[in-house]
Amino acid sequence: MKFSHLFAGKPYHEIEKKADALLQTGEYGFAKLEYEKALLKWAKKTSEAPGAGDQIEAKIVQCKNTLALEHRKSADNLTETGLYEEAEDLLQLALELAQDERLVAEIEERLKGLKANSNPHKALVMSDPEEGSEDATSFLYEESGDEYFTALINTLPKAEQEIYLGYGASFREGYVKLNQGYFEDAVTLLTHALEADSPTGDYIQLELATAHLNLGNNSEGCFLLEGFLNNHPESIRAYPPLCEIYWKNNQFDEAQRLLTNCPDPLHDSPVIHLLMGQTLFQAGRYDDAESHYLDYLNSRGWDEAIALALAKTFEALGSKEKACKQYSEIMSTCQGCGSRIDPHIKQKYADMSLETGDHSTNILELYLGLVREIPENRTDNYQKISMIYELNGNEDEARRFSSFAEQSRQRS
Q1: Structural domain boundaries enclosing 154
Q2: Helices H, strands E: what count in the chain?
Q3: Residue 77: pLDDT above 70?
């Protein structure tokens, strides 16, 4: 046997076969990585099976489009719970992956609305009025406000967009104020809108409740949300804020009843299951929360928000090894599908690994990266880098990073 064969690794068709198996089991991110390896290996031997490259590229496109669809779906779930910045990150990733023109257009449309939501204090863009036009300024402001309002509601389901477009000027202005962070103005305008559009203003209740909750008016917010859900139990957007109010009031049984009695189409929603687990967690029932999250992941498949909630539950139970393994799995899954790993998840994983006795080079490299990624933790991470070097017997580097930690502490 030639030595070159020993070091050449698997041929491209074996790597492709492994990727096919991953694709069949729904592991699209890892399948994409394997197909890309196969394509690189095939490119070195283009004389073999000339059409194989096109076939592998087609499979990579399939993986990318499927991943983009999954990220878009996850972003929709995050949007429904008000996590606009996290949803925007997922949509940006989906846009990078998407190869289908129609899918790209859908994602771009969602992003347009999310960018407006994730930057609530952004000023409305004003054009210079034309000379000789007395009402130019007011007209342009109104036009900009309408464009901003339309961008904001683009993140909503189509049926709800139509309802929002049917409300009057007070609602539109109040909704814009709400998303700009002017909550007192929003309460005034949306209250007026509710009076003007009653009894057709059910969704105004939802937005007015949001404004009240941002001002700390929990009783008003609770009353409005309960009234809204009586008429629209299928609207998943109302469940997270109402559950948070129940948790603050220690009304855990009330929260469980709310979630258990939601309409059938919502029962399998990851948002509802996440809220069920969080209700158990908030009530201090950590073992039950663990069982709930594990049952979801084992029976319905991967969901990052639920996987992260499970890791936090392991922490609350004092199961550091399990929590560490869970954070590692989250990081591996993100890497497999091309998603950016949240630096705070890296921080959790590194800290728990260190606590459980892992002071390997991998953990050291994680901390070195975190010094840049989370500047506010720089002092503490320098100290941990120093500790790892000391545990590994490198006194010089331990002292050097200990001095970095001290300098960072003095500057802060």
Answers
A1: 137-232
A2: 23, 0
A3: yes
Counting Cβ atoms within 10 Å, is residue 109 exposed (0-12), middle (13-18) or buried (19+)? middle
Is pLDDT at 253 greater than 90 in this prediction?
yes
Q: What is the pLDDT of residue 70?
A: 81
In the structure encoding, which two tokens stand for residue 344, read together? Answer: 């705070």
Where residue 340 falls among pLDDT bands split at 50, 70, 90?
confident
Rounded to whole angstroms, how far apart are CA atoms 248 and 279?
11
Contact 281, 273 (CB under 8 A): no
404 membership: H or E segment, kind and range: helix 395-411
Q: What phi-psi label fits residue 122: left (phi over 0), alpha (psi between -120 and 50 degrees) or beta?
A: beta
How many structural domains compose the chain? 3
Residue 381 domain flag: yes
CA torsion, points 192, 195, 199, 202, in degrees to nearest 10? 30
**In a shared domain, residues 183 and 110:** no
Same domain, 40 and 98: yes
How remote is the C-alpha of 376 from its chain's centroid?
Answer: 22
| DSSP states of 86-126 | HHHHHHHHHHHH--SHHHHHHHHHHHHHHHHHH-TTPPPP-
> CA Rg, the chain, in Å?
26
Residues of the chain above pLDDT 70, percent: 85
Burial, 357: exposed, middle or buried (Cβ in 10 Å; 0-12, 13-18, 19+)? exposed
Q: Which residue has the tokens 């859908």?
A: 106
Over range 247-260, report the average pLDDT: 96
Q: Which residues have a Cβ under 8 Å from the Cβ of 216 and sit 6 or more positions away?
A: none
- Do the domain assignments include residue 273? no
Structure tokens at 179: 């998303």
Share of residues in the chain with pLDDT > 90 (%): 48
pLDDT tens track for 88-142 = 777 887 888 888 888 888 888 888 877 666 544 333 333 333 444 444 333 333 4
Residue 222: name the closest of 248, 242, 250, 239 by CA.
242
- Terminal CA-CA length for the chain: 63
Instruction: Mark which of 213, 232, 251 sits at the end of a domain.
Output: 232
Any idea which residue has 């909704």 for tokens? 175
DSSP string, 44-84: TTTTS-TTHHHHHHHHHHHHHHHHHHHHHHHHHHHHHTT-H
Can you read off the two tokens belonging to residue 65?
Answer: 């489009």
